[in-house]
Amino acid sequence: MTSATALPEPITTGYQIDATGLEKSYITPGGVTVRALDGVDLHIDAAEVIALVGPSGSGKSTLLHLLGGMDEPDAGSIVCDGRDVTALPRAELVAFRRTVGFVFQHFALLPALTARDNVMLPVLPYKTTYDAKDRARSLLDDVGLAGREDALPSQISGGQRQRVAIARALMNDPRLLVADEPTGNLDSTTGAEILDLLFGIRETRGVTVVLATHDETVAARCDRIVPIADGRLVR
């Protein structure tokens, strides 16, 4: 039997993803309709690291949100390992989101919570078969923050805050990791360290990684670059 403090074993493979005909539009406060995605087709292999590159407003973040189940397309489908995520009932969609880890450019840490408590946030509403505090501490060790469990976000550097955010994204042992400009607020040296960390996660956990970036150096290190402009993939 699994003990109460046992940590889940890392998965061995990430999602294979097939997105077909994705469309998404938004209405601005001024009443103007903006088409963020216009018929996007994208195949991603399991455990692949791909970079979405393009100017601001090109649709990168929108595509990340759709792939991670944070938003729904107006049309099209997203199939992960043969399961159409866009057709899932709400309860099953919530369960799918728990298999996705999110990393944001501005870290999105709660300032009043310690590093450990920020990492624990994804599992706080749920019962777990393991000790959440032990898992959070272990993940902080994995990202190079041993001994900083009780530090507040204001007490650590930008690079360290991003490491906390990555540890939080791993709390549910995700099969897909989506990262929106994960090095955008960091200097080049710290950004390279964060990218090393993301690639290490892919190697050790087999997770699929999709990141959006403006940085050509970051994109060049990925398995594949997917340019996007005006809501369409550039072939």
From TrEMBL:
Output the InterPro entries linked to this UniProt entry: AAA+_ATPase, ABC_transporter-like_ATP-bd, ABC_transporter-like_CS, ABC_transpr_LolD-like, MacB-like_ATP-bd, P-loop_NTPase
Please give the coiled-coil regions recorded for this protein: none
Record PROSITE patterns:
ABC_TRANSPORTER_1, ABC_TRANSPORTER_2
Q: Name one GO molecular function term.
A: transmembrane transporter activity
Q: Where is the ABC transporter domain?
A: 17-234
Q: Which domain of life is it from?
A: Bacteria
UniProt keywords (A-Z) are: ATP-binding, Nucleotide-binding, Transport
A GO-annotated cellular component: membrane protein complex
What SUPFAM superfamilies has UniProt attached to this entry?
A: P-loop containing nucleoside triphosphate hydrolases
- Enumerate the CDD domains for this protein: ABC_MJ0796_LolCDE_FtsE
Protein name as it appears in the record? ABC transporter ATP-binding protein
